[in-house]
Hints:
The structure holds two protein chains of two kinds. Chain A contains eight helices and four strands.
Amino acid sequence: MKTHEHPDRMRLQTTQALVAAGLILYVPANVLPVMTMTVVGDVQPLTVMGGVMELYDSGLWPLAAVVFLASIVVPFCKLLCLSWLLLLHGTTIRQRERCTLHRIVHTVGSWSMVDVFLLSILAAVGQLGALASVEAEPGGLFFAAVLVCTLFASESYKPRMIWQTREATAS
Amino acid sequence: MTQENRPEKAPVDHGEVVHPSPLRISWAWIFPVLAIAATVWLFWSNLASRGPEVEIAFDTAPGMQAGKTPLIYRGVTAGKVTRLRLDASLAKVLVTVRLEAFAAELAREGTVFWIDQPVVGIGGTSGLDALIQGNSLQARMGSGPPAYQFTGVDEVPLTPLEAPALTLQLRAADIPFVDRGSPLFYRGVAVGEVESKVLDAKGQPSLHVVIDAKFAHAVRSNVRFWPVPATSLKVGAGGVKVDILGLKAVLLGGIEFEAFGDPGGPVADGAEFTLYPDRFAARATGEPVRISFKSGTGIVAGQTEVRHLGVPVGFVESAELNPAAREVDAIVRFLPEFAHLHDADAIFTLIRPRISLEGISGLETIVGGPYIDCSPGGSGQTATRFAGRTLGNDGFETAETEGKSRLVIVHADTLPPVAAGAPVFYRGLVAGQVREPALGADGKPELHLIIRPEFARAVTGNTRFWNIPPASVQAGPGVLQVDVANLESLAMGALAFDAFGPAAESVPDGARFALYESRTAAQATSPPIRILFENGQGLLGGQTQVRYLGLPVGLVESATPRNGKVEAIVRLDAGYDFLRREGSAFSIVRLNVSLNGVAGLETLVSGVYVECVPAAAGRLIDRFTGVSSDKADAEEAEESGFEIVVIAPHTNVPEGAPVTYRGLVVGKIVRKELAADGREVGLRAVINEEHASLLRENTKFWDAGGVKISLGPLSFKVQTTTLDALTHSGIAFATPDNPFMGPPVERGHEFTLHGSPRREWLRWAPRISQQK
């Protein structure tokens, strides 16, 4: 019993810590440029939102929507969802929905690093000398850190913990 | 927590092993702490790397983009343009630049900002990287107190890394071919560049040059500047040397400087210097020496050199007109080491190219330009005023001959084309030179001749001057001689003189003589003879010769119409006065071509001439009536012949046509005239006296001219008289046989001209004794 209790408490704390770190890191991840694009001497530092705007300005609004969803909405939603899960931890409110939500977050999480992957590929391949180059910026690091935080947070928070009410623990 | 504590306390009660209290706080909290730390550090470092903001005003800011365009200092991004706006009057672009923290020092007074854009020029190509990366803002740090407002410059500074150590101002009368970026050489090392060409308030041009800091010490107060000729051509007896500096200098020119004289002190920034025309001029620093010349031809200020023994020792700084003395003053500066050469007794001679039959002198000046030769006197006392001499083609007097040679003035109605410097010959020797053409007081053109002293005696009262044509042709039967004078006379013309007639006294300086057109004209010294000719065709005053036995003995001086005739004034050479005896016959010999023969063929080349047949005796007269050669024949015949008249209503037979008897020419038609009533034509024919007896009352005349073609049933006969008659036509006559011939006719008897002979006329064969 105690041996069960202890890891769960630690898991909860770990999740809380990671979600907090993710929330903190989310700010620089979106403020700082994730990459610098140099096309024919035109140096353009791009934040995630800047990249979306760039795509939208270029008329590629479906792509802009996808990137916007995948890079801004989804990580933010994940953080929100995890925060919600943690807030309602130990209560019996909407335990079933929370279970579903956790499963969705977990599933989506396996795709969340696509952005970072894309960025790393771009930075590695997009080196055309003076003509064009793509360089990763610290913002990308923060962005990846946010994703890593959400990944591990959703991983450390087990679905069964949703069902562990304070009452249950006490009994 | 109370929930958790309770179970823990329970084991104590049950005597179980008490585990140390497990860690209450998860190690995972390190992540948020790290995240906060990283974020804070990031923002803080971002803030810390921001330097001050400066504002730069540009006239134009091509390619500037807010948030993108970097400020480059020594190749490193030292800031970024954050804002672009126009000032209130829309006259300037204000570029706001956020400097990096490390570049905060750039915000100083004196910092130069410019926009780096691609510039492709002959002086160099810069900003090529801007082609790819876009224009950037560049800066060169100043050294003043902190400042945050700047005015940008339009052009890239010549020294973009650091401010030049020295900016000098070079003054010159006119700026040579240099441009911004032209190199500045010191002993062959490029130590700076021309920054700008400016005109000051007075309109004086000057050059601003910048000297690189590391070479600033080379510029001392004693340096002198001169433009480097990109290419220089040196021609001398040793050969031709062509110097071509580097391509840049060829395209852009350059300035060179060197120190001369005393060591000199350091110069301050902005010092003023004089730009000398060339290196030589820069070296010549001696005191100005003034040399007066009669003519400034060939003296070029800043170029003409002064040479001593062929070595340049100075140069003409300027040439001034001295209206009072009607001279040109050359202001000459000597090289300091040759200053002793302009001593009080020094002789300065302007050397110009001179070509004469005696030789060519000053040939090097054809290429190198005239120079002033300096021969010092050695008195040791220097002077600064000299009277210069001239050696060259438009001034004959030289140091040796001046003052002793003789001036002679020749005049003519029309001067032959003789250039100044043309030689004057005396019996084939060059005796002098034509100095200058001038207009005399009487409005006649004159030539001033300088006769060398050794020939001065040859110019006497009976001397005659004539023009030597560059080329002459002498032709006679079997003789054709073409004389081409030497190249010099061909180019300049030439004169000659000689004395004719009795000896005369030598003449004073400045004597005046008439210029004759040729030697023949000059030779013909007799008093004029007037000859009246019926027809002056071919007579040329001054050219047509008078010949005696085929030899030229005189010249027709002029031919003028007078009373319907032509009066030729003829002068005979000395010694031919016997041709002027009363009764001498003068006739004009012209080319006469007929089928009987060609006469006067030589006149084809030589022109007509006047043939003189002197009378055996008689007194000398000076008026004659000339005879034309053909007329002479006719008159001769008229005098000696038996004259008759042949009447025809119409005839083509011309004057001079032959009169034939049995194909033998026995007479000639001398005149063709209309009969008094105008109905007929009278041919006045002269028959030789010896044949006059052939003419009888019944003699028949017919037109024998041309070709007679008779066409019979079986024959075709072409009949002509003489070949002469073929062209000239003519008349023939026949006299009937003895019983019918009739008595002899009187002079002036009139016959009738028939168109063609009857057959029996041709068979007539009278026996008539001929008078002998």
